[in-house]
DNA sequence: GCCGTTTTCGGCCCGACTGTTTTCAGTCG
């Protein structure tokens, strides 16, 4: 998969073209780059099959560039553009508050072509003297450099979500707040988010903005207005609050939830139907008369579309399906009847069997599986046979105490280097649920190893199938299309691990697996009651982003049916 | 550079906030 690699080239080219003052091309290159990133198919395969034109935003010119790059490892225009300007100058545009115009102007006037030079010039107050610049701009640039240097990377959804909930809770205390909701990539349950977007309805926004911009977690106020305020939180992420009128709330939710390309498509549909769509509503283009906007459903319906769930709004074919009324009915968190991957103090978990079970009961689950690590996982205090049997006795005891829930005896069993399992057949056959997982040997191709595990009749689930951990390691090499086929044919289940830095399978993987007809399970892989409560949300979000329905997910089955499936 | 039930040429989402400016350009989302 070189999709992301090629997308990066296009982003770079867009930045340089923008600095050069070229019209429209930058937007076209960026659109193509976003399409490539969101693509679930391998761009090299599409190129081989001459289907690059199927990718939205890719036409004659860009297809030729992709082909050139795949064949030769080079892209002539990219090389030429890089040569045409000093190397680091595009970095200047990534500083908040700096855009192509300022970067170009400062390069021409002062010869600034690196972040260091820019900082020096601002500190020596050389910028404020320039036409169109002032002391405020100078301060803003210095602040932008600080933000740029400390972490301009995106934040994991699982870290940002609790922060967003905290802000919502604090603002809800204000009597001026009507409706309040999260929007943006967080509402789309993207694995990482660039900022936190919160929408509010109110007649009297000033006191809300006062409270928001003075929360103790706020480090810097970037903007404060009647309808929009922006802050940087001490946690290192930006948060925006927007205040909207009641009648525009749905249109604003739609607008600020995005994604970008989904919205652009929607706007084009609006224009074709004689409307104009903005965050204030859907309007008749000629008369400016308000047509819809109170709810998102209303906006979609007026455009001749089914309501599209936020997690699907990535312009990956959902609009075409919505026009035909054929959107899939996505799995929901309250469809989930049990959690089949969790750890206790017997291995590397923080809570006892009893604590995990009582939490699961409160969550309303019908069943769970306790799946501590197998013997090889010494670091995680993996269980050898004697301690495993001791755990089973404890499970039996807790089971008697909580008859409302079925507790399965499970294990997260290591898949060894040769694809065999870390427990003997005698132990495996006594387990209700076996989650087979790879925890070492992550640098090699693990296709055959996983395929062999899939042939083991005692393996129920393959845990975190690609080994990816965001910001820690890439997925190991794996021919997933073979894994999907083998899992489907053997009646095995692939896991969507809800740990925020994993979400493994990923949204893109889930989409492929669902198309391939593989059964999936959504687990928390919880190492504490806290995670048991909170991580299912991220697993379900990932499943929904991959267009999974309840029928694709085995832990939506009620206990009786579920038992039948795993026994088979 | 892409794209087409207005168009194969001429459009390309749209509005808020800021700063520096007396009316608007730049940036952001």
**Lateral arrangement of strands in the main beta sheet:** 11-12-13-14-15-16-17
User: Might you state the CATH topology name of the largest domain?
Assistant: TIM Barrel
Helix count from the secondary structure assignment: 25
Helix content: 40-55%
N-to-C span? 35 Å
> What number of structural domains do the residues give?
4
Shape: globular
Cα radius of gyration in angstroms: 26 Å
DSSP strand count: 17
The average pLDDT score comes to 90
| CATH level 1 class label of the largest domain | Alpha Beta
Query: Beta-strand level of the residues, as a percent range?
Result: 5-15%
**CATH-derived architecture of the largest domain:** Alpha-Beta Barrel
> Could you list the spans in which at least 5 consecutive residues all have pLDDT below 50?
none
| Class inferred from helices and paired strands | alpha/beta
Q: Could you give a short account of the major beta sheet?
A: 7 strands, parallel
Fourth-tier CATH superfamily name of the largest domain: Metal-dependent hydrolases
Q: Can you describe this structure?
A:
The protein is an alpha/beta fold. It has 4 domains: 151 residues, DNA polymerase, domain 1 (Orthogonal Bundle), CATH 1.10.150; 89 residues, Beta Polymerase, domain 2 (2-Layer Sandwich), CATH 3.30.460.10; 66 residues, Beta Polymerase, domain 3, CATH 3.30.210.10; 235 residues, Metal-dependent hydrolases (TIM Barrel), CATH 3.20.20. Helix content is 44%, strand content 14%. The chain is built from 25 helices and 17 strands. The longest helix has 17 residues. The chain is globular. The mean pLDDT is 90. The chain binds one DNA strand of 29 nucleotides through helix 2, helix 4, helix 7, helix 9 and strand 5.
């Amino acid at each position: 998969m070189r999709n992301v690699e090629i997308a990066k080239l296009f982003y770079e080219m867009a930045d340089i073209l923008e600095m050069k003052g070229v019209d429209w091309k930058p937007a076209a290159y960026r659109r193509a780059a976003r399409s490539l990133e969101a693509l679930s198919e391998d761009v090299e395969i599409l190129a081989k099959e001459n289907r690059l034109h199927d990718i939205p935003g890719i036409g004659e010119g860009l297809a030729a560039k992709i082909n050139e790059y795949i064949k030769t490892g080079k892209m002539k225009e990219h090389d030429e553009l890089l040569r045409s300007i000093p190397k680091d100058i595009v970095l200047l545009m990534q500083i908040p508050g700096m855009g192509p115009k300022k970067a170009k102007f400062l390069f021409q006037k002062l010869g600034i072509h690196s972040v260091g030079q820019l900082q020096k010039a601002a500190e020596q107050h050389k910028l404020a003297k320039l036409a169109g610049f002032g002391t405020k701009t100078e301060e803003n640039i210095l602040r932008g450099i600080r933000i740029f240097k400390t972490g301009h990377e995106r934040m994991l959804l699982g870290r940002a979500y609790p922060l967003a909930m905290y802000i919502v809770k604090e603002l809800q205390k204000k009597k001026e707040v009507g409706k309040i909701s999260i929007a943006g990539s967080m509402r789309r349950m993207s694995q990482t988010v660039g900022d936190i977007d919160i929408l509010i309805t109110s007649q009297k926004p000033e006191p809300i903005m006062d409270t928001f911009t003075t929360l103790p977690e706020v480090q810097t106020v970037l903007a404060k207005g009647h309808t929009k305020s922006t802050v940087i939180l001490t946690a290192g992420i930006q948060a925006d609050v927007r205040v909207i009128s009641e009648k525009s709330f749905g249109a604003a939710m739609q607008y600020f939830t995005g994604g970008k390309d989904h919205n652009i498509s929607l706007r084009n549909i609006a224009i074709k139907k004689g409307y104009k769509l903005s965050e204030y509503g859907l309007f008749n283009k000629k008369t400016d008369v308000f047509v819809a906007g109170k709810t998102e459903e209303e906006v979609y319906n007026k455009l001749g579309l089914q309501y599209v769930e936020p997690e699907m709004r990535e312009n990956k074919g959902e609009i075409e399906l919505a026009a035909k009324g054929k959107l899939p009915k996505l799995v929901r968190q309250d469809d989930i009847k049990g959690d089949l991957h969790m750890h206790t103090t017997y291995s590397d978990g923080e809570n006892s069997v009893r604590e995990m079970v009582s939490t699961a009961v409160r969550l309303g689950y019908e069943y769970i599986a306790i799946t501590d690590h197998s013997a090889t996982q010494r670091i995680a205090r993996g269980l050898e046979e004697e301690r495993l049997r001791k755990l089973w006795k404890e499970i039996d005891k807790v089971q008697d105490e909580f008859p409302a829930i079925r507790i399965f005896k499970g294990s997260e069993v290591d898949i060894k280097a040769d694809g065999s399992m870390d427990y003997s057949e005698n132990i495996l056959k006594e387990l209700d649920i076996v989650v087979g997982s790879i925890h070492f040997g992550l640098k090699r191709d693990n296709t055959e190893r996983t395929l062999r595990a899939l042939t083991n009749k005692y393996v129920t689930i393959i845990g975190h199938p690609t080994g990816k951990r965001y910001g820690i390691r890439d997925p190991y090499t794996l021919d997933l299309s073979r894994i999907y086929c083998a899992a489907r044919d053997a009646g095995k289940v692939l896991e969507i691990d809800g740990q925020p830095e994993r979400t493994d399978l990923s949204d893109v993987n889930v989409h492929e697996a669902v198309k391939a007809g593989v059964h999936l399970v959504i687990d928390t892989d919880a190492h504490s009651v806290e995670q048991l409560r909170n991580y299912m949300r991220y697993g379900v979000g990932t499943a929904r982003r991959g267009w999974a329905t309840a029928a694709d997910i085995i832990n939506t089955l009620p206990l009786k049916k579920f038992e039948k499936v795993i026994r088979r």
